[in-house]
Structures are given as structure tokens and as C-alpha cells.
Design a protein that fits this description.
The protein has about 140 residues and is α+β, with helices and mostly antiparallel strands. Helices cover about 20% and strands about 20% of the residues. It contains three helices and six strands. The strands form two sheets. It has a four-stranded mixed sheet. Strands 5-6 form a two-stranded antiparallel sheet. β5 and β6 form a beta hairpin. The longest helix is centred in the C-terminal third of the chain and has 15 residues. It is elongated.
Amino acid sequence: MGSRRGPLKSAVPSNVVSPVRRCSRTACGRPAVATLTYVYADSTAVLGPLATYAEPHCYDLCAEHSERLTAPRGWEVVRLLDGSAPARPSGDDLEALANAVREAARPQQRTAEAGGGGTRGADPMEVARRGHLRVLRSPDN
């Protein structure tokens, strides 16, 4: 009589294949964050966000190796910005934030200038208010 067994299970769990892509540099096991591609016709090394899937002629690099990347003599390095990464704040961002805080600090003054008829009539785009938060109508409607 033969024994009935389910699918074979390994006695030792395998950690050889990882769903996280690793840096292509030798002896570096950090997770990859960028992909390096060489354009030989233009003598250019292009470093961009991590590619959707691994390609045979591209190299995945960790954050440290992508920051320290240098190209061969006579070559140019083009660094493409990752659109999903948060941009560093600029002076304009700080000024816009300060203006928004100043605006929020004086709601009574704005209401008085609009005729003093209550907070709903102050702004035709304003639908409702809850504390310092406002619900605005869509410009399309």
C-alpha cells in the first residue's frame, strides 16, 4: 500500500529568493532604491527610480551606492528625479505655509469685511466650517 501525502514541503525554509530586490554591488545586501542604465551611444549613465522589474542590462543600487555613483572619465551622469518621492521644501513653500497660518489666525476680520452676516456668507465657495477647517465647493460646480 502506498501512502497518500500532500504536496512536498521542504524541511528547511528557503530564504534564497527574496521578494525585495537587492543592490547589484558585490557584497552589498541592502534593498535597491534606484536603477542604473548605461547609454553607450551617448556616453551617459542614467540613474533613475527603481525600475518596475529587473532587466538584464540594468543595475539596481541601494541609496548609498546611488548617491556615490560616478561615471567613467568622459561620461555624463543623468539623475532622474523620482516623482513619488517628496520634494525638499523651498523658501516659497515656507512662505505659503506662513501666509496660510496668518490667514487662519484672523477669521473674524475676514467675516467683518464680507458684511458680518455669519461665516457661511463670507466666502461663496465655502459650504461648511468645522473649527479651523472649511469645506469648499468644487470650482467645476
